[in-house]
Amino acid sequence: MKVFTLTLLAALISTTAKAEVETNNDKVDLPLPTRSEFADQTKRDLGKYGAVNSIQELPISRLYFVEAESGSFIISSDGRFAIEGSIKDVWHRKTLKTVDDVRSTLRMPLADMKFDFNKDLASLVLGNPDIPRQGVIFGDPTAKHTRDLVSKINANKEKYNFTFVMMPLIGGEEAVKRSMSILCAPDRELAIEDLANNTDKSFLETNEGCPDQNLMFTVYMQEIFKITNLPHVVREDGFVSKGAPLVLDEWLEAP
């Protein structure tokens, strides 16, 4: 289902970007194709193979892009698989021909995502909503490292603005229940205190009638953002910290 998943995820990315081409050493800005135009072209390219009869995941854990004298290709980390042909990044609407092309796609700015982290995901705002958002945090409310990061932000709330997305992947059923209790609390400030301190002062006696807060959709973010550790922090420009940054201010200022 990977091809179909890629097509689905492509719809989440916005269409505001530009490409640069060189003509006689002069650079000219040309608009990239829209998301739908690029997706349609990709479908046409795939269509030359005919109807899909079956799909099997390859035993590959890591891939490398190789730029050689005669062209470019992708090779698996163990050297077992070498993949030739046109390589397209549907999210960035680019055909990858060089290593520089690949490097330019390593970060995806959050502003380019075609969904609202605050409205579409099971989330709440940490810190000061009056300053520009600095990033998004995916975390499990039952995990200590997540709570420690939330506590650090909450202790200096005037200087930070993060969207915290509930990702109850560590604590199992308890994490799901705690996520719902925090998200359904009528007092958001007290709920954030509970999130940081592992308390339950804001909790309602029952969450009946409370929306599901998009927890199911949030789970899909694990695949989109390649989340392997929690907390998983994404800066506005797409810079990622797999785990809580050791020094948050330094991480925010890092190139």
Plain-language structure description:
The protein is elongated and about 65 Å long. Residues 1-31 have low confidence and may be disordered. A five-stranded mixed beta sheet has the order 8-10-9-11-12. The chain has 255 residues and is an alpha+beta fold. Helices cover 32% and strands 21% of the residues.
Quick structural summary:
By secondary structure, this protein is an alpha+beta fold. Helices cover 32% and strands 21% of the residues.
Topology summary:
Blueprint: H1 2-10, E1 18-23, E2 26-31, H2 35-47, E3 63-68, E4 71-76, E5 82-83, E6 88-89, E7 94-95, H3 99-103, H4 117-120, E8 123-127, E9 135-139, H5 144-155, E10 161-166, H6 172-184, H7 188-197, H8 215-219, H9 221-224, E11 232-235, E12 240-242, H10 248-253
Parallel strand pairs: 9-10
Antiparallel strand pairs: 1-2, 3-4, 4-5, 6-7, 8-10, 9-11, 11-12
SSE order? HEEHEEEEEHHEEHEHHHHEEH
Question: What proportion strand?
Answer: 15-25%
Uncertain stretches of 5 or more adjacent residues: 1-31
End-to-end separation:
36 Å
- Summing up helix and strand content along with how strands pair, one would put the structural category as alpha+beta
Total number of strands: 12
Mean pLDDT: 81
Name the assembly state: single chain
- The radius of gyration over CA amounts to 21 Å
Bin the helical content.
Answer: 25-40%
The major β-sheet equals: 5 strands, mixed
How are the strands of the largest sheet arranged? 8-10-9-11-12
Provide a count of the helices.
Answer: 10
The gross shape turns out to be elongated
